[in-house]
Amino acid sequence: MLDGDRAAWVARDAAVVWHGFTQMSAFAENEPVVVASAEGRELIDVDGTRYLDAISSLWVNTLGHHVQELDDAIREQLDLVAHSTMLGNGNRVVVELAEALARVVPVDDAHFLFASDGATAVEQAIKVAFQSFANRGIEGRTTFCALTGAYHGDSVGAMSLGDDGGFGASIFDPLRFPVVRAQSYDDAAAVVRERGNELAAVVVEPLVQAAGGMLLHEPEALARLAAACHEAGVLLIADEIATGFGRTGTLFAVEQAGVRPDMVVLGKGMTAGYLPMSATAVSRAVYDAFLGPDLSDRTLYHGHSFGGNALAAAVALRHLELLDSWDVLANVRDRSAQLGALLDARIAGLAAVKEVRLKGLMAGVELAPPMPGLRWGRRVCAAMVQRGVLLRPLGDVVVLMPILTSTADEIERIVDALAASIAEVCR
């Protein structure tokens, strides 16, 4: 039961706010936390209660909350300029960020089209892929291939790439364009070989289908898909919104497959969770298809008011520097090994658990309720709130997404809370 200031704030919240991916009729009963402040890897609610942010504030936070170096980067930029348009003009810090990204993003001679969220960056990639063939006078390349269980965002184009299950996309079928669906990377490669002359691009999350339930794929299969795309002249778009910036143990997941896609979509952890920013990284070969006379049809008529925001760029640039200087990837690999061992020892063998899946610091514990409607995932996460650990499930998959700088003690704390919560809810 909610009490104190928290109950009052939840009531005020429900009276005026509509939360995404949330059934508002059940909002209050699902133990919502109303955050007032944060410190390190903990969120602090309006009652002063602390919660370990084991979901990285929906997968965006990488280094922790209230990081002095990141705070300072925003303050310093604020003394210069908060925002200026990138439509036909530039901004110094955005150029510096793009230069830094070009050195590390696995795209050949990359150019970056900035946006504010992952779904918008996916939309950009769709439009770029489609128009690149039209600009080159190549007919028939109008179809996209994506995986079963895919999720690439909520906007109409991104939702078209996504599968129907679990997110209500089928309601919008009259708005969605048809997509060729493949069960796996190897199935997608077969589609490319059979129907390559119809395809503009294959769009996949590399190694981990995150919102699909932390479904895992092998790097070797991704390499085979990339080879098939290259041979058929089909663009490969890697959606690294969830997997990018260290989540899987390398800066970008495609590195583990030795793949350099035609486009990489960036988001979530790009600014360490500080400000909304995303980007579509496009190879020089694709970018060149848009060069031509001023105001010509070869122009990409696409852009957003806040694309390339200077404050977001400043913190994103400092974030890249800290990922390197703090050797964050080494900590991700160490904590991943620890988390995997703890999940194997304490969680995987429980009768209520169907499967445990882990890549880097992306984990999914799939529960096995004996009948529909028990809402085990939701109830386990609510029980974890009572134990001071904040998570959010995907159906009956409890997602663990610790902040990349998490300590060994904090990983222990997450698994302790999960084991106790499963025992409480699933007995």
| CATH class categorisation of the largest domain | Alpha Beta
| Helix-strand topology string | HEEEHHHEHEHEHEEEHEEEHHHEEHEEEH
Q: What is the terminal separation in angstroms?
A: 21 Å
Low-confidence runs of at least 5 consecutive residues: none
Biggest beta sheet summary: 7 strands, mixed
For the secondary structure, the number of strands is 17
Q: Provide the CATH superfamily of the largest domain.
A: Type I PLP-dependent aspartate aminotransferase-like (Major domain)
Count of alpha/pi helices: 13
Class inferred from helices and paired strands: alpha/beta
Estimate the global geometry from the Cα principal axes. globular
> What is the averaged pLDDT score?
96
CATH third-tier fold name of the largest domain: Aspartate Aminotransferase, domain 2
Percentage of residues in helical conformation: 25-40%
CATH-derived architecture of the largest domain: 3-Layer(aba) Sandwich
How much of the polypeptide forms β-strand, as a percent range? Answer: 15-25%
Compute the CA-based radius of gyration: 22 Å
For the biggest β-sheet, the strand order reads 4-12-11-10-7-5-6
Give the number of domains: 2
Descriptive notes:
With 427 residues, this protein is α/β, with parallel strands linked by helices. The protein has two domains: 4-63 and 327-425, Aspartate Aminotransferase, domain 1 (Alpha-Beta Complex); 68-325, Aspartate Aminotransferase, domain 2 (3-Layer(aba) Sandwich). The chain has 13 helices and 17 strands. The protein has helices at residues 4-16, 56-59, 68-78, 92-104, 118-135, 156-161, 185-195, 219-232, 284-288, 310-325, 328-346, 376-386, 408-425, and strands spanning 35-39, 42-45, 50-53, 111-115, 143-147, 180-182, 199-204, 208-209, 215-216, 235-239, 263-266, 278-282, 353-359, 362-367, 389-390, 392-394, 397-400. The protein has a seven-stranded mixed β-sheet with strand order 4-12-11-10-7-5-6, sandwiched between helices. A four-stranded mixed β-sheet has the order 1-2-3-15. The chain has a four-stranded antiparallel β-sheet with strand order 13-14-17-16, with helices on one face. A hairpin with a 2-residue loop joins β16 and β17. α4 (92-104) packs parallel to α10 (310-325) and α7 packs parallel to α8 (219-232). The protein is globular. 47% of the residues are buried. The model has no long low-confidence stretch (mean pLDDT 96).
